[in-house]
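Example with several molecule types.
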Amino acid sequence: MTAALDRLLGARLPGPPDQLRRGPFRAGAFSSPLHSERRAARTGAFLGIAFAVCFGTGLISHWVQQPPGWFSWPASPSWLYRVTQGVHVTTGLVSIPLLLVKLWTVYPKLFEWPPAGSPSRLVSRLSILVLVGASAMQLLTGLMNIAEWYPWAFFFTTTHYWTGWLAIGAVAVHVGAKAPEIRRGLARRGSAGATAGLAEEQAAERRTVDEAEETNGVPRRAFVLAAGLTVGAVTLTTVGQTLTPLARVSVLGPRIAGVGPQALPVRQTAEKAGVTDVGPDYRLVVEGPDRLELSLADLQALPQHTERLPITCVEGWSANATWSGVRLADLLEQAGLPRDTEVSVESLQTGGLYRVSTVSAPHASSPRTLLALKLNGEPLAPDHGYPVRLIAPNRPGVMQTKWVTRVAPGAAGIGS
Amino acid sequence: MSLADEAGRTVDDRAADRVPADTYASDPRRPATSALTPWWRWLFLLPGLGAVVYAVQGLLTAGGRVPLDSWLTWFIGSALLNDLVLAPISVTLGWLSARVLPRAARPAVVVGAAVSGVLALVALPFVLGFGADPANPSFLPRDYGVILLALVAGVLAVTAVAAVVAVRRARSGAQHRG
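Resulting C-alpha cells for the full complex:
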C-alpha cells in the first residue's frame, strides 16, 4: 500500500517550460553556502522557542481576559502579568529578526524548479505558505498594534488570537514534517547524526557545504553574529517599556514610564471615551442587599488606603504608580455582599468593548484592590479615569476600568 | 547539500537507475511515505494539525469581528512583504557587496547592514506615527525619525571601523605571507 501511496505522492507533475527558468529560478542562482539545512534548522530552533514562549504567554493573557471555566488567575504576585505580558511582547518583537533570518536561509526554496514537481511537493509548499503567512501576519500586525496603527478592517484582538493558533499549529506541523532534517541540522558537524538518513553522495555534499560555511566570504560566524546582534538591538531598543530601569535606554519604546499626566502614561483618553465632563451629580452605585449610592465626597470620607501597583498594558508597556482610594472589598461588605464576590465593574464610557470588566474572587477580596480616587498624590486626571478608577494587582490595564460608575455582582463578558 | 542545489534539481538521477522501468518513481531509498520515524514527529504533527483546524474554525465563525477578505489580504500580503520586498533587498545588497567590497570587509558590512535594516523595519510604525493621538502626548513621546537616523548612523559608523580594521589586517597578513 505504501508503494502505491508513494507513486501517488511522488508522481511527477508537468512543470512550466524550461525557457521560463530565468533569474532566481536558474540553477546555481543562490551561491552562498549559508543557504543550508544546518543554518535553517539552527535558526529555526531559536525562532521556534521564541514562538512557543510568545504563544504561551499570549494564551495566558487571553485566558486572564476571557477566563474559561477551569482557569483561575491569582491576585498575587502583583507583578506576574507584568512579566508574562512583557515576555510576550519582547519575544514577539525578537521573532521579527529571527524570522527574517530564517526566511533568508531558505529563500532559494521559493524558486525551486519545477515549482511543484509532485503532489507531495505541492502539499508541502501550500503548508509553507500557511506557515509564512500566519507567522509574518502575527508579527507584523502585532508590531503595528504596539504603534496603535490599524489600517485594516478586522478587530485586532480576535484576529490575533485565532491567527496565533494558526501560526503555532503551522510551526508544529513544520517541525513534524521536517523532523529528520531538523535532527541532522542540530547534530554536531562531522558527527554521524549530521548525515543520518542520507545517501553517500548526499552526505559528502553535505560535509562540503558545512565546511564551505567556514571559508565563505561571509562565514558562519558573521551570520550568527548578525542574527544575535539584530535580536539584541531590537530587545534593547524596546524592552524598556516594560523594564522601567531601561526606560530611557529603549529609545524606540512607544511610551516612557514616568512620562504622562501625573507621571503615568495613558492608553485611552477621556476625550476618546467620551467622558470629559463628570459633574457633582456623579454617583458610584454598588448593587447589593444594602444598595449604595455614593457621591465623590462620600467616597472621600471613607477609610482610604494607599497601594503601589503597576498599570500593565496588553501592548507590553507597564509602569508603577501610587494609588489611594477605597478598598473594593470594604465597599462590597458595606453593601452586604461577601468580600470575595465576583463583580462586574462598569464605566461611564458608553461605547467600546471594555466598558465593563469582571473582577474575579481573588481580586475582589484582595486588600490591594482599590477603587482609586488619587494617583501619585493628586485626584485622578480625566485621562486616568476621574473620578474613580479600578486598580487591582496582577491584572491587564484594559481590565482596570476607568470612570467607574457601577459595581454589581456577577460576571460580564467582553462587549457587555 | 545546500538548499540552493536542492531547489535546482529537476530529476533525482540517483533514483533513476533504481527503478528503471518507472519514470514516476521517487527514490525508493527515500520514499515520500517514509514518514513514521522519528517517533517524536507525531507529537508535533497531530497537535499542530489540531491547532490549525481550531484556528480555521475560529476565523470562519468570528463573523463581523474578522472580515475574511481583510484577513486574507494581510495574510497573503505579510508573506509577500518578505518574499517580494525584504528578502530581495537582502539578496541584492549581498550580491552588490560581493562585487564592490574587498573580501575582508564583507562580514562586518553584512552584520552592520542587517542590524540597521532590522532596526529601521521595527522602528517604521513608530516613525510613521499613524497611531498618534494629539490629545495623548504620553504615547509616542519621542522623535522616532531622528532616533532611528542616530541609531543607524551609529551602527554604520561602528561597521565602517570594523570593516577598515578587517581590511588592514587582511592586507598586512597578505604582506607578511608575500
